[in-house]
Amino acid sequence: MSGVLAAGGTNTDFVAEETIFWILAVASVGAALAMILVRRAVHCAIMLAVVMLCLATMYAMEGAPFLAFVQIIVYTGAVLMLFLFVLMLIGISNADSIVETIKGQRLAAGLAAIGLLVLLALTIGHAAIGPAPPQNAGNNVNNLTGIAQLIFTTYVFPFEVTGALLITAAVGAMVLAHRERETPRPNQRELAARRVASGRLAPDPSPGVYALHDAADRPALLPDGSTSELSVSSALSPRDPKQEPRFVPPEETLQITAESGEWEIAPSGGADQ
Amino acid sequence: MSPVHYVALAVILFVIGGVGVLVRRNAIVVFMCIELMLNACNLAFVAFARLHANLDGQVIAFFVMVVAAAEVVVGLAILMAIYRARRSASVDDANLLKY
Question: Which of A50, A56, B29, B50 is the 20 to 30 A CA-CA neighbour of A42?
């Protein structure tokens, strides 16, 4: 691998290169297929990371060590992390729906894919592509120096334009992600008035905490056995909606006796009376 | 290893990315599939750079990476703005411009 990274291609590398190529090709195609098949966006991101790492290794094998590291640092490091950040902001549990909203869309997409594949395969088949020269054939001194010479001589104007593009993109992202406050921030007097007007002065009940579920997403139980939706923050949704908390009558329940009107401990089953 | 293999792999990855763009509904996943297509193009560029024994293809691939990074930044910001307005990341829900 170090020989591959140093782009010192010799004939002894041939078998190793072929072996690594087939492993990486199967891994990347499989990960790409999994990417369009899995439902959760986070799993898609992981599969995309696999594809990118495979491609980075291939760049190294193809005599482009600079691009291999840029691929890992920029794509896998920065771009994919950006995807994950936005996924966290939008909601990690957003699974794609299986329902086909446009009738026959998947069939049409499959046909279009087959057509494109045939078209591109025929194009490659018709091209006369000879055997590859050694990995370092194009390098002037070495890969990094060669790329630097090209970027700062032939491609210096596109390079400068790229800088302008990046600054524009950064400013554009800041403008798009910025949220303007449309209403003035409410002060304390307005907040207090709003609370009195809402008719419920007390703070929201705290979430239920049980021996089994010591979590803030468990709603509190009301005295009649129903759950209080107010007790759970709206930012938290129950992880499993089917797993509702059950009302388990305790062995000894507090009951108000009719005579004294005071609290006393009633025996088991007292809640039914 | 012949460059044909690399180009064929690039073609396969490109087509898979294209199918993903066509069939997926989550806008973030659509973006990821576009990234996959750009990566496939980069692989073809690098393979052709080696075939022709010069570095121009690698420089173009480098520029593709830079432009892709800028595109992702702006695209995800647009996505967040849409999500804030419509509470959905599905491409089906952004249909105000439909005739």
Answer: A56
